[in-house]
Design brief:
Strand content: 25-35%
Helix content: 25-40%
Shape: elongated
Number of helices: 16
Mean pLDDT: 92
Strand order of the largest sheet: 1-2-3-4-5-6-7-10
Oligomer: single chain
Radius of gyration: 30 Å
């Protein structure tokens, strides 16, 4: 493997007459491993109706290298002539036996990965063989080599003027993503099967490139023939290829250089140096990416601060976000100015209540706003967590004094001695309302003056369909005691989305505003959202975001289109579907989502009704809910 500060890059050989020489030359060219045929690529074996009996071994001996080198330096490639889905029974059976023989020997050597070519549809029999091997042997992982673009990708529409079914079938047969999707699906999306994507000279359309970003790419194969030569005689890639590779760096993929050396006067090392240069000169991580490093595609259960008391470490993490509290400070400042005219600022003290005060960051922001605009404030800090109350009382004693009244109570139960001019809270979750901000603020608004201001004043949740085999696999590995197998797929997860493809722009889902003057108050919601799907894809679930208006034009957002720059307090939420939904190009998707309310809990239900219905997930909150 490469050092953490450099990429991991291997060299692909068509054949290797001298194994030691290949390893030594690759190492001197800075490559970290080699890909070589398990057997000679032209050595076909006959198991069914053999022409003659062969006594010599079908491949080289394992004694050529110590086990450590086999285990770390060599990726084995299955022979390219093997065709396990041939319509000819003899060819198919011979191919099956050859495939099993080569894989068995690769497992014997302890190779870290076995590369298998996927070049066409159908691939059903190949998938069945690989899937069985994944379950029954100690193979570490398969790299399924798929070209990014089929050599026969152009379909002559005139050939199918009166037969759309044949046209669609031909397009599927010529679409490498379709090959991969079929293969991956047949293999149950197992982690032992990863994608070795071979980049092409002419990249496909942008939306087709984007589709690959939701796939479990283990390695990117870069043929030497697609490199250009710069003015100094060194290999470089076209700008679109550079941009695509740059997107893969965040996935920690490995790279493989295949093909012969085109830079005879400089050597293969220049190819590695160029790819490593792209990696080393990539743009620095922004604040959000730095904060979320290590949490990419890591599933977390959403916080339930109303039912559970947050720990000190959790408070500390969120208090480090400067963007959120700067926006809150500005919102309070503008509200104070609107509340108190300039000529009355010396005589009026604004009553400000921070509900859910935690360890006091909003209290600090409010005092900073007060000082910035010259308006006096009196602050009530209401907090139900008795452990956070210790911090608030300490701050009152050492810093705030009589300017702050600390209240140890659930905001819904407290009886205020006076009405507030401004109510400030930070009760929002990744989906806006999922930490029960509506229920909390509805209970607290009774001590807000009739013309009082709530910060935030409103928030909207958003949904977007996504494709991510990785997230779906991670969900499938979750196990909950005393719950059925559907439970992990009926649970929303907070997750830093990385190896995903958002297949359509997010659309509004639920909306809440405060103060809420509706009588009786009803915080249940239901919605149906239609999405136009531009590209053939597999839907694994939905990404959830939110946008909140703090005051007037001041807002905070985790919606990708207007994400508050540098803010890292919230990751998106992920609503999985148990069985992925296949959608064709230019089709429609309709998703339904409900926010259900009972006396003791809140929960979400979701389903799809178009292009075909699937069961409603999480009925009656059977798998997950938020406690009141």
């Amino acid at each position: 493997m490469a050092d953490a500060s450099h990429i991991s890059c291997g060299r692909d050989f068509f054949s290797v007459p001298d194994l030691s020489q290949a390893l030594n030359s690759s190492a001197s060219d800075k490559f970290h491993f080699i890909c070589l045929p398990i057997a000679h690529p032209r050595f076909k074996r006959e198991y069914i109706k053999p022409v003659c009996l062969r006594s010599r071994p079908f491949t080289r001996s394992d004694l050529l290298l110590p086990s450590q080198d086999w285990n770390t330096l060599v990726v084995g490639k299955v022979s390219p002539w093997i065709n396990t889905d041939s319509s000819d029974d003899v060819e198919r059976k011979n191919s099956e036996q050859a495939l099993l023989q080569e894989i068995a020997f690769a497992v014997h050597l302890g190779l870290p990965a076995i590369m298998v070519n996927l070049t066409k549809q159908p691939c059903t029999n190949l998938a069945a063989l690989i899937n069985g091997i994944c379950f029954d042997s100690h193979v570490q992982q398969f790299w399924i080599r798929v070209p990014m673009k089929s050599p026969a990708s152009q379909v002559d529409n005139s050939l199918f003027e009166n037969d759309n079914n044949r046209k669609n079938e031909c397009e599927i047969n010529n679409d490498p993503w379709e090959w991969w999707n079929s293969f991956r699906t047949l293999c149950h999306n197992t982690r032992k099967v990863g994608l070795a994507l071979e980049i092409c000279k002419e990249l496909p359309r942008a939306k087709e490139i984007k589709r690959w970003l939701g796939e479990p790419i283990r390695t990117l194969i870069i043929p030497t023939k697609i490199f250009l030569t710069n003015k100094k005689g060194y290999p470089v890639l076209p700008r679109p290829h550079q941009q695509f590779i740059g997107q893969l760096f965040k996935f920690n993929v490995q790279f493989v250089i295949s093909g012969s050396n085109k830079m005879l006067d400089k050597g293969m090392v220049t190819y590695y140096q160029y790819i490593d240069h792209l990696y080393l000169t990539r743009p620095p991580l922004d604040c959000y990416s730095q904060f979320s490093k290590g949490y990419e595609d890591y599933l977390q259960c959403p916080l339930q601060p109303l039912m559970d008391n947050l720990e000190s470490q959790t408070y500390e993490v969120f208090e480090k976000d400067p963007v959120k509290y700067n926006q809150y400070q500005e919102a309070v400042r503008q509200a104070l100015i609107d509340r108190v005219p300039e000529d009355q600022k010396e005589s009026i003290t604004t009553i400000l209540m921070v509900v859910g005060a935690g360890r006091g960051p909003l209290v600090r922001a409010s005092f900073a706003a007060s000082q910035a605009c010259g308006r006096a404030i009196k602050v009530y800090a209401i907090e139900k967590n008795p452990n956070a109350i210790v911090t608030l009382l300490t701050l009152k004693q050492e810093e705030w004094g009589d300017k702050v009244i600390v209240v140890s109570s659930d905001m819904r139960d407290w009886t205020a001695p006076e009405k507030a001019d401004i109510l400030v809270s930070e009760l929002l979750g990744s989906f806006g309302d999922n930490e029960l901000s509506p229920e909390c603020l509805d209970g607290a608004q009774r001590y807000l003056k009739d013309d009082g201001i709530s910060i935030p004043e409103s928030y909207t949740s958003y949904l977007a369909p996504l494709s991510s085999a990785k997230l779906h696999y991670e969900v499938s590995q979750c196990r909950e005691p005393n719950k059925g197998p559907q439970a992990p797929f009926e649970t929303p997860y907070v997750v830093r989305l990385c190896n995903v493809d958002i297949v359509a722009e997010p659309k509004p889902c639920f909306y809440f505003s405060h103060p809420n003057k509706d009588v009786p108050i009803d915080n249940s919601r239901s919605t149906a959202i239609d999405f136009d799907i531009q590209n053939t894809c597999l839907i694994h679930g939905f990404a959830g975001f939110f946008r909140t208006v703090l005051y007037k034009d001041l807002f905070l957002s985790i919606v990708p289109a207007d994400h508050s720059e540098g803010m890292f307090s919230w990751f998106p939420i992920f609503f999985p579907v148990q069985h992925p939904i296949y959608l064709t190009e230019n089709s429609s998707l309709r998703v339904h989502c409900w926010r259900k309310v009972s006396r003791t809990k809140i929960w979400y239900e979701w389903c799809i009704s178009k292009p075909h219905p699937i069961p409603i997930h999480n009925p009656s909150g059977r798998s997950t809910f938020i406690g009141l």
